[in-house]
């Protein structure tokens, strides 16, 4: 058990990658707050995971969480920013500004607000480990989905910025770039869109949420004590090409 005694907050923790991260962190002994927009808990096998309703784009929700953490346990050790949306596939010529704003609010501003809360709480008090879930589409180009690509690219450089800013103060910040992973987000997409990504994935298969969670547990814990600003693809080789 490598994370016994740590307090972790995981956004997007209701399902998919975020849920797998919450379960994997709890499996290593962490106490976990899984945060998401749904009113009620999906139910977790581990008693170490508590569900909390939180909209990552809401300053008020983050302030309320900060107040809760300040009271008990007075700190946060691990933050995993996994909440994300990809509702529009539109390109530069046809993206609606409202859709653009919605995606940036969750995928980019949501990460900023999470990092702001955690760093403000732990600055000068470290250690703190932040793991942001970006995407292969933050690093390489693909067709369409300009708002999603923009938001995920921003998360990569926000990660690097925070890593350098806080490196000397006990706060590590890293990001993971998932390739095609078997979750609701891709299940609702057109099959031909997923097939196109799969066809270009050297390992020739879709990834599993627990394969992302394994990277999160590594980066969150002390085995990664000299790693900050790393951008780790877990993508079956997609971005190696
Ligand atoms: N599945 C993939 O192939 C893939 C690939 C690359 C990156 N990602 C990223 O991984 C992360 C997790 O995605 P997933 O595949 O598990 O999708 P998912 O849709 O299964 O899970 C995303 C979760 O985020 C939550 N969420 C959405 N808006 C929120 C908000 N405003 N506040 C709090 N929670 C919110 C959703 O309710 C959901 O539980 C996302 O950031 C996504 O962009 C996924």
Automatic annotation (TrEMBL):
Belongs to the short-chain dehydrogenases/reductases (SDR) family. This is NAD(P)-dependent dehydrogenase (Short-subunit alcohol dehydrogenase family). It comes from the Bacteria. SUPFAM superfamilies: NAD(P)-binding Rossmann-fold domains. It holds the Pfam family adh_short_C2. InterPro entries: NAD(P)-bd_dom_sf, SDR_fam.
């Amino acid at each position: 058990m490598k994370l016994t005694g740590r307090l972790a907050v995981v956004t997007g923790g209701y399902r998919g990658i975020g849920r797998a991260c919450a379960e994997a962190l709890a499996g290593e002994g962490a106490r976990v707050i899984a945060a998401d927009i749904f009113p009620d808990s999906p139910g977790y096998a581990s008693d170490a995971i508590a569900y909390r309703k939180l909209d990552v784009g809401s300053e008020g929700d983050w302030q309320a969480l900060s107040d809760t953490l300040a009271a008990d346990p007075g700190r946060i050790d691990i933050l995993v920013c996994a909440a994300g949306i990809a509702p529009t596939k539109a390109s530069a010529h046809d993206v609606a500004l409202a859709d653009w704003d919605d995606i940036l609010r969750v995928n980019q501003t949501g990460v900023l607000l999470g990092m702001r809360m955690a760093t403000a709480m732990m600055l000068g008090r470290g250690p703190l480990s932040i793991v942001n879930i970006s995407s292969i589409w933050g690093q390489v180009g693909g067709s369409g989905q300009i708002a999603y690509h923009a938001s995920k690219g921003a998360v990569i450089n926000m990660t690097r910025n925070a890593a350098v800013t806080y490196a000397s103060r006990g706060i590590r910040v890293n990001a993971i770039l998932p390739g095609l992973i078997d979750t609701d987000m891709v299940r609702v997409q057109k099959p031909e869109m997923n097939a196109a990504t799969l066809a270009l994935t050297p390992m020739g298969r879709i990834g599993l949420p627990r394969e992302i969670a394994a990277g999160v547990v590594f980066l969150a814990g002390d085995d990664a004590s000299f790693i900050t600003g790393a951008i780790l693809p877990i993508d079956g080789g997609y971005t190696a090409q």
